[in-house]
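Chapter review: from sequence to fold.
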Amino acid sequence: MPEFDPSMLGPEYPAALDAEEEDRLRAFLAEPLVIAGVPCRAFTLRDWLTLRQRDNAFLRGKEKCTSADIVDFLWQLRTDAVAHGAHIAKLENRLEEACGAIDAYLAAVFADMELGGRHPSWREPCASWAAYLCAYFAQKCGWTVDQVMAEPLARLWQLRRALALSENPKLLPPNRAGKVRLQWQKRQIEAARGKGDTDG
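The token string follows.
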């Protein structure tokens, strides 16, 4: 297989790198986000737990979201109740677009999620991943549970990766650009196998 060269991957690779960089930098800004045309604040660990408790489809992995799920999600992240209500009213005929926008936003929020250190598959978990995340930052940074709960999740995932990489520089967490590279490597291997079959 030829040595990896980013230029061989086409435009998808630099595009993936740029998209990751934008999402990661945005996680450290205090500016409001716009999701489906609605101004929202950053998604925190507390939001995840609250929406999950309310059985919101976006946090429960349900196949179909309803207008109630969309309104519930956007209301949870509201920045201004009066202005928020006006924006929500405009979504009545754009529910599919709003659903896609929320899915895309959550994909960016969880893009760097990687807790690691999982228990063997035969052992039941003894705490939620929220507890592990709070315990991790309490141990590494001295943060309280409330501090961790109030932090944007996308920021927490990055900080956790940065701390893990500082302890183990050889760690190679997966990301969108890495997936593009792995797909390229897979094609190279398949091509080499095909050539071997032909030569044989």
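Two observations follow directly from the output. Residues 6-199 form one domain. The first strand starts at residue 33 and ends at 35.
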